């Protein structure tokens, strides 16, 4: 019997119609975004593709928020979007709002499969929709590191993005033109996978460059800014709960996560990346926290936290939201 279908049947809602290429919106600047006005028992989006949060008896999103009331933002990729949550009410934004005694609600500013460039661009494109922003939490980091292993001709200066290989290949096959020629450059160059040290340096540099822009934006808005390195299951503990180990084993056969990211899962790699980010963030005066370390200290060995190696269960979202509040409320 399938562990995934038994333990997390709602995960099929994220992999089926919601992820279908015909429903994903292909957009300038950020490449792709979630389906518009998507409705299901698991995941729901507004007219511009942002996921709804459900807390305190109401649903809210970036596209529907009351501009008369201040808000707080949690920004990131699929973990912030809430892959793994069985319903909108279990995402980080929802649980942050429910667990926060302060009046300002939290909005879900997550973009599935986004790197830090896309996270930043998404905010600049939609900042005009927002009321007063009191606080921004960047819950991010892994995608930049995971994509840093791609060859230099795909990463370029601002970081690789998911589906970038397909994008460049498709553009190169178009009728020859000035831009078509540019997109084809480097295709004949041998692809060299960078060393782990090079990957770490590159991912940290891109992340910190974008963090410095967030710092400037937050200062301009009078908002508090915190960067939290999102955790992987292997960064939190060597062995997961009974449910996690069953899910990981089944997912490994289908997706070979460990084969692709095995060296990133290593504790030495994670600690080196976290140290680079901490040093850079603190140098620019931005509060940094390593959620893997915090979560390891706050959870028990048999506690079911992850539906896969990067996304949380409902109870995992709730626990992490409380930890985020504990971390950020200490620095006002």
What does this 3D model show about the protein?
- There is one protein chain.
- With 332 residues, the chain is an alpha/beta fold.
- It has one domain: Rossmann fold.
- The protein is built from 16 helices and nine strands.
- The strands form three sheets. Strands 6-5-7-8-9 form a five-stranded parallel β-sheet, sandwiched between helices.
- Strand 3 and strand 4 (58-60) form a beta hairpin.
- Helix 15 (291-298) crosses helix 16.
- The longest helix has 26 residues, at 196-221.
- The radius of gyration is 19 Å and the shape is globular.
- It starts with a helix and ends with a helix.
- The relative contact order is 0.13.
Could you say what the CATH topology is called? Rossmann fold
The residue ranges in which pLDDT falls below 50 over 5 or more consecutive positions are 177-186
Helix content: 40-55%
How would you describe the shape? globular
| Biggest sheet character | 5 strands, parallel
The CATH superfamily is identified as SGNH hydrolase
Structural class: alpha/beta
Order of helices and strands: HHEEEEEHHEHEHHHHHEHHHHEHH
Question: Number of domains in the coordinates?
Answer: 1
How confident is the prediction overall: mean pLDDT?
87
Summarize the structure.
The chain is α/β, with parallel strands linked by helices and 332 residues long.
């Amino acid at each position: 019997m399938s562990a995934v279908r038994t333990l997390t049947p709602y995960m099929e809602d994220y992999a089926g119609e919601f992820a279908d290429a015909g429903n994903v919106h292909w957009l300038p600047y950020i490449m792709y975004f979630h389906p518009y006005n998507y409705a299901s028992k698991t995941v729901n989006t507004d007219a511009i593709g942002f996921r709804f949060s459900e807390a305190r008896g109401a649903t809210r999103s970036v596209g529907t928020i009351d501009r008369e009331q201040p808000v707080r933002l949690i920004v990131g990729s699929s973990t912030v979007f809430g892959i793994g949550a069985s319903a909108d009410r279990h995402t980080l934004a929802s649980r942050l709002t429910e667990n926060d005694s302060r009046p300002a609600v939290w909005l879900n500013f997550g973009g599935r499969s986004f790197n830090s460039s896309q996270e930043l661009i998404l905010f600049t494109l939609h900042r005009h929709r927002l009321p007063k922003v009191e606080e921004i939490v960047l819950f991010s980091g892994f995608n930049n590191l995971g994509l840093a292993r791609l060859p230099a001709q795909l990463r370029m200066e601002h970081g690789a993005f998911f589906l970038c290989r397909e994008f460049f290949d498709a553009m190169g096959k178009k009728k020859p033109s000035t831009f078509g020629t540019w997109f084809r450059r480097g295709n004949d160059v041998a692809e060299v996978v960078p060393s782990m040290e090079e990957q770490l340096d590159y991912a940290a540099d891109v992340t910190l460059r974008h963090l410095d822009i967030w710092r400037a934006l937050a200062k301009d808005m009078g908002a508090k800014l915190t960067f939290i390195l999102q955790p992987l299951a292997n960064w939190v503990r060597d062995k997961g709960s009974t449910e996690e180990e069953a899910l990981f084993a089944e997912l490994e056969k289908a997706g070979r996560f460990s084969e692709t990211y095995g060296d990133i899962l290593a504790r030495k790699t994670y600690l080196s990346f976290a140290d680079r980010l901490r040093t850079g963030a603190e140098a620019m005066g931005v509060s940094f926290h390593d959620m893997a370390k915090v979560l390891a200290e706050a959870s028990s060995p048999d506690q079911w936290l992850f539906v896969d190696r990067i996304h949380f269960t409902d109870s995992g979202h709730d626990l992490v939201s409380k930890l985020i509040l504990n971390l950020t409320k200490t620095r006002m």
